[in-house]
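Technical annex, item 7. During the second reporting period the consortium partners agreed on a shared format for inverse folding records so that results from different sites could be compared directly. Each record opens with the tokenized structure and is followed by the designed sequence. A conforming record, contributed by the partner at site C, is shown below for reference.
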């Protein structure tokens, strides 16, 4: 097998290096969140990918090894709901064994809806997972059930968050997608619930990912409003980014009770520092969350191509990248382009 040389200059047309690869391992999810996988589209008759179409763990491990050798330092496992993929702990152990050219382990994280996390947390940590992010859009029982649209109780997600912390997967990040008129009245309630717990609550602006979530600009709650509302009760001060290319702006409570984050893809585009790419469950590479087309990596992985060939193909795709959808969103005519659904490539 070919040994790859590190390539620290693996950059796109705007000088953005590829440092963060998000890998979807299933297109299936047991929730039907209205902003992601609405039942009207993903109903009982919806046909998901056959197991044979998905990248195998061996293929994912090989792809990850190739990109880590070229400078990727962070791998995030997503879905769909990644904990629905049987044997996910085996994949985590494979990826945790990878090392950067400097001999350092990769930063290995996962995003989950939390439905199976309570029973999986200890095994995931033992396998080598570093951190976990849990999606949680409401603390109110009936509202949470309405948002996930499968009658799943919020208490089980809260229990899972605590289980992840006990297992050593903390600090746990909690992602809340805000939608005006749906859950924006819980901003302070959510902040108060997680203040002082060590968990990091992050508010995400409702985004126009895909074409099935009925996105409207007037339903976006700007991050500045979120910070203002919380700071009026519990004063906040800005924090420096933990690492280059972070999507969240960090704010800490002045009284030392922890921090929150805000992700402003609509009102504060961060395209200029984006170092992320995404691989769908069946091996399509997307260089932007709002991409319309991908590059078929599965075909390369199954064609007998060696590592150097695949690395060169990845370099060609990334070096041609000029994505900046969030920066130009306002100038685009509504509905003038197709976009991949978020459930297909993860968040």
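Designed sequence (site C submission):
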């Amino acid at each position: 097998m070919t040994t790859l040389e590190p390539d620290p200059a693996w950059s796109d047309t705007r000088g953005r290096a590829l440092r963060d690869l998000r890998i979807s391992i299933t297109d299936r999810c047991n929730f039907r969140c209205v902003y992601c996988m609405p039942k009207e589209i993903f109903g009982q008759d919806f046909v998901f990918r056959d197991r044979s179409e998905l990248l195998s763990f061996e293929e994912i491990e090989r792809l990850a090894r190739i990109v880590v050798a070229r400078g990727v330092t962070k791998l995030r496992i997503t879905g769909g709901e990644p904990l629905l993929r049987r044997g996910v702990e085996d994949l985590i152990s494979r990826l945790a064994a990878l090392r950067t050219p400097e001999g350092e382990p990769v930063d290995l994280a996962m995003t989950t809806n939390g439905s199976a996390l309570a029973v999986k947390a200890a095994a995931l940590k033992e396998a080598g997972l570093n951190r976990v992010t849990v999606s949680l859009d409401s603390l109110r029982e009936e509202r949470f059930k309405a948002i996930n649209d499968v009658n799943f109780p919020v208490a089980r997600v809260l229990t899972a968050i605590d289980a992840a912390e006990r297992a050593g997967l903390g600090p746990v990040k909690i992602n809340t997608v805000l939608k005006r008129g749906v859950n924006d009245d819980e901003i302070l309630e959510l902040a108060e619930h997680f203040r002082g717990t060590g968990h990091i609550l992050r508010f995400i602006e409702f985004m126009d990912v895909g074409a099935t979530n009925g996105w409207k600009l007037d339903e976006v709650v700007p991050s500045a409003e979120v910070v203002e509302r919380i700071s009026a009760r519990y004063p906040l001060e800005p924090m420096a980014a933990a690492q280059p290319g972070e999507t969240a702006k960090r704010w800490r409570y002045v009284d030392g009770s922890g921090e929150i984050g805000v992700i402003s893809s609509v009102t504060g585009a961060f395209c200029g520092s984006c170092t992320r790419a995404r691989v769908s469950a069946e091996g399509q590479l997307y260089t932007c969350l709002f991409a319309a087309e991908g590059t078929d990596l599965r075909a390369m992985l199954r064609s007998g191509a060696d590592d150097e060939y695949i690395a060169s193909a990845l370099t060609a795709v990334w070096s041609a990248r000029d994505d900046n959808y969030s920066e130009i969103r306002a100038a685009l005519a509504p509905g003038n382009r197709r976009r991949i659904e978020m459930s297909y490539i993860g968040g």
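Residues 154-167 form the longest helix (14 residues). Residues 20-345 form a domain with the TIM Barrel fold (CATH 3.20.20.70). All partners now use this format for quarterly exchanges.
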